[in-house]
Amino acid sequence: MREESFVSSLGFSPYLSLDWLAILAVICLGISLFALWRRGRGTLLRTALLALLLLMLANPVLLTEKRKFLDDIAIIVMDETNSQKIGRRGEMTNAAYRELKVRLDSIESLKIETVTVKNETTTLLGDEDGTHAFDARKETLKNISPDRISATIFITDGQIHDVPENEDTLKEAGPVHFLLTGEPDEKDRVLKIVKAPTFGIVDQPLQFIIKVEDFGLSEPIQAARVTIKQDGEEVAADLAQIGSDLTLELTLNHGGANFFEITVDPLDGELTEKNNSSYITVNGIRDRLQVLLVSGEPHMGERGWRNILKSDPSVDLVHFTILRPPEKQDGTPITELSLIPFPIRDLFEKKLNDFDLIIFDRYRRRGVLPSSYLNNISRYVKDGGALLEAAGPAFATPLSLYQTPLSEVLPGRPTGYIFTEGYVPTLSDTGKRHPVTGQLRTNANRSEKWGRWFRMIEAEALSGEILMTGPSNQPLLILERSGDGRVAQLLSDHAWLWGRGFEGGGPQSELLRRISHWLMKEPELEEEQLKGIVSGNNLKIQRRSLDLAPASVSVTDPDGNVTELSLSVGEDGTQTGTIPLQTSGLHTLEDGQQKSLVAVGALNPKELHDIRASAEKIANAAKATDGGIRWLETDGLPDFRRTKPDNRQSADYWFGLRANENYEVTGYDRQAMLPPLVTLLLALAFLCIGWWREGR
């Protein structure tokens, strides 16, 4: 930045108004013309004297400005998006930037502004926007006048997705030059997801449409092999025609998040395999949950079970109440009975495996279900089914279900004693952390207590987790995993008191709903959970466990890099941690016991669609601003010249840096051209010469 003085203008600061000066000028002009007409002696001297007096009254002044010339600014835009991480592009970018900065720093009156462009890491939602290098340049120009821009130099592979369609908007901010990384004539294969559902019904086929494209091949290939993995296990393979859509039918195996990885075989000599795979997350939901409710006898809580299950739109309920057990024989003809016979064989032999949950509500052995059918239920649980027993008083007697083959799966063994005093159900330490009961505390006002129950069957918990307790801290609610299935025991039939609002009531509906959905393997109610959530450029990890010991999680990214993260424990027992995301793809989380997957990145990122280095997208922008394009690999850095705004700004071997010569006026000097004393002396000189001339 330099400061100089320049004559800017010659002005007037008259002692009289312009009107009076004009009148005097007319009078003087008239006198001079009259003298010339009469050919008077000394006319020219008198005219010169009058002109001098008029000029003195006009008071001419010379204005001199002090100008501070502003440094020009060269903007360097560094492309550090995902496509720039391919091969040696990142290395070439850094090397070119270092050398470019040294060269530009050596140029007088030139400053450098550096802008870095990176991809945002997002969840699998739609298409990623790609490289927004011109938007980054636009943000920089908000704080800099375009008249000060000497040039904009992009160090990129040419894959810029926000080049302005109207190139005229680029001209006012100087030439736009491009230094291209990568190599000309690269080839690559890309897998694109044309259609993919975000959710689906478990055990129902889903349609995925994919497309494989090859770029840069002189001899096209007809087909390529596509492999599909589900939750890390290969489930299918197919042959895709290059350039044509391929429809795949896949089935969800379970509820919650299902991770699909679709991969195409690489192309020989292709640029990268990063865009040969795509990761899809599909949330599995169950169409209709089939629930069988068997009530051993009519009682006050029976309607509560029915209302809760019927109010859930995802549940299909089959409910039977035993009103006439086999021992009740009074001679009434069967044809005169309005009761429906219990279809034992259909339910517990033919269609048993069609049910997602079986509930025994105050059931007791009365000869209705033979031991062989109860043995079928025990085997059904071990093979992955779900059983809930809401015990009544009969559970403490020889008529208990524990005296049947179901004892193999029931976690609580009755002692024969029944509590009949009033008590308030209490969450155990485990229950406070378990997803089934841990949130029940928020369903009642903290200033109020839950209502009392008045009956509980004492039982010894042989296995499972005790979530709720009753009198003497005895088990009230036990959850157990048996084989591949699940079992729950509620050792009281007084939950209906909460539903009736007795002594303020309690969360009956929520409790029974959560128990039922845990039994049916609702992912959000799992007591052992490890999951990752993408938030901006970070991966938030949440771990839920009944084990209070702090844990660490290892995160493996698609490139094989492993990061160890120690989790912090929150108030509700949930352990959390956050790590920055470095790349897109399928990330694996492991804590020593559990393993989960997290798909990171857009479904079809523009950045990886055509990853070849190319000048095609940027050619118009360079041409519109008279900028240059140069390949670093083959041509190296160009020479740089300071150019005038109206001159040429680039050639094959040099790039122009516009010299704008912008300045600020820091002050000015005002100097009178005819000081009064000088004018007086000149006037006296003219008078003397005139008198002398007339005296001859």
UniProtKB/TrEMBL annotation:
UniProt entry keywords in alphabetical sequence: Membrane, Transmembrane, Transmembrane helix
Record's signal peptide: none
InterPro entries named among the record's database cross-references: Class_I_gatase-like
Transmembrane segments: 20-37, 44-63, 673-692
Domain of life, per lineage: Bacteria
Protein name (record): Glutamine amidotransferase domain-containing protein
Organism (species): Sneathiella litorea
